[in-house]
Design a protein that fits this description.
Elements: H1 5-28, H2 39-44, H3 46-58, E1 62-66, E2 71-75, E3 83-90, E4 99-102, E5 110-114, E6 122-131, E7 134-143
Antiparallel strand pairs: 1-2, 2-5, 3-4, 3-6, 6-7
């Protein structure tokens, strides 16, 4: 059976419209996770961020994950006594699971982060702190 050119054109057009509608529906349902909501402001302050990252690389702060107790232990340098800042547990695959914590050190200059309820997998620990007017930034990947 041979179809005429008008029927073929109508079938092609209908198929094209259906495929385009399917693409639009799929695209509208895609969740868009931005790393930072106000990325433009962060871009303007990149030089200060670069300097704080450089300071953090020279710092002796260590980040360790202890699987037995399911906690992350952040050991700050003993010479840094008056630290103010925040720690972010960043989950690249799901921004809704991110956690922001204020730095609260114990007597041994450590901070314990309980991660018992956290999802297993890839996390980044981002430490952004200040000591005597000097800013530091440190980042480490942790696999829970």
């Amino acid at each position: 059976m041979k179809i005429n050119w008008g029927t073929g054109l109508a079938i092609f057009y209908a198929t094209f419209v259906i495929v385009m509608i399917a693409i639009v529906v799929k695209a509208s349902r895609t969740d868009i996770n931005m790393v930072q909501e106000n990325y433009y402001d962060h871009d303007l302050n990149y030089e200060a961020f670069r300097k704080s990252r450089e300071n953090g690389s020279q710092d002796k702060t260590t980040i360790n994950y202890v699987a037995a107790s399911q906690e992350i232990i952040i050991q700050f340098d003993q010479s840094l006594t008056d630290i103010a800042g925040q720690i972010k547990l960043y989950r690249p695959s799901d921004h809704q699971k991110d956690q922001n914590l204020v730095i609260d050190l114990d007597t041994k200059n450590r901070m314990h982060l309980d991660v018992k309820g956290a999802a297993k997998g890839y996390w980044k620990v981002l430490i952004d702190y200040e000591h005597q007017g000097k800013k530091y930034f440190k980042e480490q990947v942790v696999i829970l």
